[in-house]
Amino acid sequence: MTEEKRQKDDLIIGRNPVSEAIRSNRPIDRVLVAKGAKNGAVVGILAKAKKKDIPIKEVDSKKLDYICGGANHQGIAAFAAVKDYASVEDIFALAESRGEKPFIVILDELEDPHNLGAILRTAECTGAHGVIIPKRRSAALSYAVGKASAGAVEYVPVARVTNIANTIEDLKKRGVWVYGADMNGTSYRDCDYADSVALVIGNEGKGIGRLVREKCDEIVSLPMKGKISSLNASVAAGVLMYEIASRRK
């Protein structure tokens, strides 16, 4: 199977295929609907998607034409995930099965699929028990993410949640200490990562959102000695994940 063919397999085109994919509980990242196409059968499909909390994005019809390669999309298409999403409970269960305290990576609206894939790869190598991403405004488990992860997507549970800030609150109630990676924080080497840990990595351009930052127990920073003020998100995540792994028993 060629890479081009595999990338196309992520895309489900047309009313019946999208409807059946949703009905069969196939993992769907998002549904794309052309502006002005919300009528007839499309309305019913969107209602099914909303009921299952699948993100819906309205796009220009010409853009949908381009995404679908000129195929007859009938005003609707969907991107399928390369792997089923896990739950936050699955992440805790994995930690328990290993006899380890939870080590979780939280991505706050990370948008680049290559960054997500690279972080999954490092998460697997450092023994993290899972990654949490938001359902909206985030890269999802696409073919590009799977490829960039070099197979790690098969081993690292990825949970999608509606609200990252609320999820952080829930983790804290379960004894997880939450570190946010951002500027003007404690040096990353001055922290104790031996207990249950969650590491928050922010958006490539905006960093961690204000509310999410406020929910973190501690902000940690990497030293910047050059003229560039920040690292690529997946590189920063990699440095911090290995530091956390080195402190854990």
Structure at a glance:
By secondary structure, the chain is of the alpha/beta class. The protein has ten helices and ten strands. The protein folds into two domains: 78 residues, 60s Ribosomal Protein L30, Chain: A (2-Layer Sandwich), CATH 3.30.1330; 160 residues, Alpha/beta knot.
Topology readout:
Blueprint: H1 3-9, E1 11-13, H2 15-23, E2 28-34, H3 41-51, E3 56-59, H4 61-67, E4 76-80, H5 88-97, E5 103-107, H6 113-126, E6 130-134, H7 143-148, E7 158-161, H8 164-173, E8 177-187, E9 197-201, H9 210-215, E10 218-221, H10 233-247
CATH-assigned fold name of the largest domain? Alpha/beta knot
Taking pLDDT < 50 over at least 5 consecutive residues as the criterion, the unreliable ranges are: 1-7
Query: What would you say the CATH architecture of the largest domain is?
Result: 3-Layer(aba) Sandwich
The ordered string of helix (H) and strand (E) elements is: HEHEHEHEHEHEHEHEEHEH
Structural summary, described in words:
The structure is a single chain. This protein is α/β, with parallel strands linked by helices and 249 residues long. The chain has two domains: 78 residues, 2-Layer Sandwich (60s Ribosomal Protein L30, Chain: A); 160 residues, SPOUT methyltransferase, trefoil knot domain (Alpha/beta knot, 3-Layer(aba) Sandwich), CATH 3.40.1280. 38% of the residues lie in helices and 21% in strands. It contains ten helices and ten strands. The protein has a six-stranded parallel beta sheet, sandwiched between helices. It has a four-stranded mixed beta sheet with strand order 1-4-2-3. The longest helix has 15 residues. The termini are far apart. The relative contact order is 0.13.
